[in-house]
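Consider one such protein record:
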Amino acid sequence: MAVYIINAEGKALGRVANEAASVLRGKNTPAYRRDRISSTMVRIENAGKLRIDPRKLRGKTYARYSGYPGGLKFETLESLSSRRGISEAVRRAVYGMLPNNHSRARLMKQLSVTS
């Protein structure tokens, strides 16, 4: 199993997430097939040194729904990163860029993010 390392220092969140999602899908290999899961592990290093604009910290929101009436909650990127760490924001960005099917959960297991 190959390991692909992405250094996130000084890069934008979306650019790092896009590169990670592309490699997880296997699009960087010549034997790419959309119905096959790549065996490449992706490790994102220096996630704490990402370049994030202060307006995005306050403006980007994440929503979650409990299933009950009035249970829709919103959280900003700033509060998410202080509560769970910036690596959680990177995970959610990559998660949103992967296909919405059964392979998404298996691909997310091949991702590791370190601060």
In short: The mean pLDDT is 96. The longest helix spans residues 13-25. The longest strand covers residues 3-7.
